[in-house]
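Lecture notes, unit on binding sites. The following record was shown on slide 14. It pairs a sequence with GLP.
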Amino acid sequence: MPSVRYLNGIKIILAKDKKTGGRIVASLIQEFLKSKKNGVLGLATGETMIPVYKNLIGIYRKNKIDFSGVKTFNLDEYFDNEIKDRERLRNFMDKNFFNHVSIQGKNINFLDGKTTNVSDECRRYEEEIKKAGGIDLQILGIGRNGHVGFNEPGSSMRSRTRRVKLKESTKKDNNQFFKLSKVPEYALTIGVANILEARKIILVAFGKNKSAAVKLALEGKIGNKIPASFLRKHNNVIFVVDESAASKLQDVNMSRFALRKLPTLVREKTKANLEH
Ligand code: GLP
């Protein structure tokens, strides 16, 4: 059974493994979309998101979720002219999520990693987010080095949409999962400030290789060494982690709850979190 606790003001939902974790995150998104059919979602790519999107597609196939009015903004995209289109993060999203649900093409937003004018492109993206009314629910993964989006260590809390140089460890991690023909040196990403402007945030982390980053994000000093630690400055954040990702946290005793009770529990325990 999953369990819940608070650490430094952040609500943490602990799932046994990534399979249950994926179900939990998908249920939280479903709950949110019940209350706001035209909601604006901030989305992430990466291995962590696969069980999340799989479960969302499952819920959609049971006619329990409608994406036709939903708008999405992905966090980031590789900035590179040489990688193949099938290696772009946009393709990951098409393959693992967009192609399987009723989301409308015109409602999908992505940074253009082939742009010849970075500042115009970053400005355009921020304007689109603003026009959509801002991001209601931002889903995040976390890098092993504590990055969120592609906001690598060193990114300031005030950083906005921009081009970033990827750290060696990030290039290695991304290459392992995405199996790229050439690892991009740069990416475009929304900034930490943009992420903190979202009304609600859910950070998802599965696996032992994320345990140090999760610990530093929740228990370490808030600062640009671990950009995910800035999330503690936001008043509406939930971390959904599996037991391995939570294994380095101070105190993993949590009160257990049945998964079917998740919607009620989230409503009860995060009143502030869930009010729109
Ligand atoms: C990538 C992405 C992030 C993602 C993170 C973790 O670099 N830019 O948005 O959350 O790294 O990826 P994974 O889930 O594959 O570990």
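Take-home: Residues 44-48, 75-76, 141-143, 149-150, 170, 174, 177 surround GLP (CB under 6 Å).
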